[in-house]
């Protein structure tokens, strides 16, 4: 997403919601600094920045330096060891949440001092996990001391309500905000989201070496979903693993960046299974308000249908 589009999208959504996150653009660090400064000038609401903390990411240190200098309220890490990010952000009084797909990794980041985790479950866009949110969210909630944010396929208020009932403290929504006028992505990307069904979302390792959820098109069929023998071997070898990750991540990020910002014959569009519930382009602020309204309606409907009292068990069984 282009820098200006990110700024406008977050400014509009933070005006009507709690916290919104910014994915740092794959450009020079100065653009990230500019975007964050602009956000802080436009709103006093909290916001977050997503950081890829894998050592193979050449922008890891400069991006973190910017977040520390600008005292970004919330940093969300993915794909790597967040130890240094947690230490440095805590030194300036800021919070760090970490993307997790397993309890093992969630316990590790909790021990490192993470303030919370984002439970990236099956159905999510980007680097999705393998576990159903119906299991992952309560499983993490049961075994962790820190808050759990639900992520994966969430696009409406009813899903938000169900996530909170499962034990989540909040939800993270991504794919739905691509289908907005404010998102500075190619119109073909937005149309693909409106057209796609849940079973059009596939996982491919060909972009970063780690399974990434993308919309299936003829090019992704041609590209394939698994690494070839040589790529897999280089990723397993301790001597070449880091460099292979850097090469694969660069190739994948360039393909995604080109497809996001302009039409190409090699469209690679990341999205989650929630595409099946998105049927129109809406302003970002309207989406937030709609989700909030749906959330309160879903909660009221549930309480009305299953309130305690004589006959409530029979009502639940017959519904």
Number of strands: 9
What is the total domain count? 2
What is the C-level CATH assignment of the largest domain?
A: Alpha Beta
| Strand-pairing-aware structural class | alpha/beta
Sheet with most strands: strand arrangement: 1-2-3-4-5-6-7
Question: In terms of per-residue confidence, which ranges show pLDDT below 50 for 5 or more consecutive residues?
Answer: 1-20, 22-31, 259-265
In sequence order, what are the helices and strands, one letter per element?
Answer: HEHEHEHEHEHEHEHEEHHHHH
Largest sheet: 7 strands, parallel
Shape: globular
Report the radius of gyration as a whole number of Å. 20 Å
Average pLDDT works out at 79
Strand percentage, roughly? 5-15%
CATH fold-type name of the largest domain: TIM Barrel
Number of contiguous helices: 13
CATH architecture of the largest domain: Alpha-Beta Barrel
N→C terminal distance? 44 Å
Q: Percent of residues in helical segments? A: 40-55%
The CATH superfamily label of the largest domain reads Aldolase class I
Which properties best describe this structure?
7-stranded parallel β-sheet, 2 domains, TIM Barrel, globular
Detailed description of the structure:
- With 319 residues, this protein is α/β, with parallel strands linked by helices.
- The chain has 2 domains: 3-184, Aldolase class I (TIM Barrel, Alpha-Beta Barrel); 187-273, no CATH class.
- The chain is 46% helix and 13% strand.
- It contains 13 helices and 9 strands.
- The protein has helices spanning 3-14, 29-42, 60-69, 83-91, 103-111, 133-143, 157-165, 187-195, 218-223, 229-236, 241-261, 284-306, 312-318, and strands at 20-23, 47-52, 74-78, 95-100, 116-120, 148-151, 170-172, 201-204, 212-215.
- The strands form 2 sheets. Strands 1-2-3-4-5-6-7 form a 7-stranded parallel beta sheet.
- Strand 4 (95-100), helix 5 (103-111) and strand 5 form a beta-alpha-beta unit.
- Helix 1 packs across helix 12 and helix 7 (157-165) packs across helix 12 (284-306).
- The longest helix is centred in the C-terminal third of the chain and has 23 residues, at 284-306.
- It is globular and about 50 Å long.
